[in-house]
Amino acid sequence: MKKTIIVFAIVAAICLLTWQFVQSEHHEQPAADVAEMETQVILAEFRWNGEHHQISLAALNAAIAELPVYRQQNYESRADKAEYLEEMIEEQLKILRAADEGFDTLPEHLKKLEDYTHQLMVEKLTEAEVDAKIAYTDEELMAHYKANLSDYVEQAKVRATCITLDDEDLANETLDTIIAGKDIVESAKALAEAGKLANGPGTNRDEPGNTFLFSKAASAQWEEFINAAFAQEIGEITDTVFETEVGDETFYLIFRKEEHHPERQKDFAEVKDDIQREVERQKKRVRINEWVEEISARGKLQTFPENIPEPPEPEEAESEASEQ
Asked: In this structure, which topology does domain 156-262 adopt according to CATH?
């Protein structure tokens, strides 16, 4: 049957403009009254199979409000809202057309809908039976902190200025200029501008030579460099080119230790949020186990795992397949 569609869409733009005027005239109206007025502002209407459909300003605003915040910001102006209105109209028409084809009653769709409904039901029940029943005090958080101090230690870190090269001659020439008085930072910048730095410690576009802070566990590949940098004194620079192998490649490094931050115990205030999440996880795990026991007891659960048959041996399975 031919469908008659009458869409008064951007009449919508006029309606939105009119509504802005209405809002300015009623800016002191209670929220409930404003919401009621929005339902009376019709932005689009159409007929499908003889049934009348409308989209009000209230429906448009409600649909936009359901979007993630970052997307809501894209629909603040009248023109943007008119654009989203067109998307709403297209979506509703597609849904109605799909229903005409019976796609709303396809068994596989209904099964997915049932599965998703069950998932939402369990999530809601879990919120009530687990999340809502979890409680803890600051004293419990502090007790967890004291019992697990080793989990809240910041490892020692160092920072160096490092020049990484894959040309031994260039590395020796560079070290000679640094020993002669050129600053290692300036040398790193010059080599970076010339495109001669190899891919390794200190090679970065914004601050050539700066390794930034790193711990001993930063990289297994560069372990030799890391250990050497940790062993240096602050301000100490390599007096010979430091040669190291990474995989099948050989690199030549020149570096100066700039900072050393020793291992330290993090304060409770620093890690309180982490502790809170961990304590919540632990309590939820306990509560879930209790809850499962409760509903199992209520349902007088019995299990018979011994009734699960053993899988057939490979030869037996092949024989059964050949007989078929």
From this structure: Chitinase A; domain 3 (3.10.50)
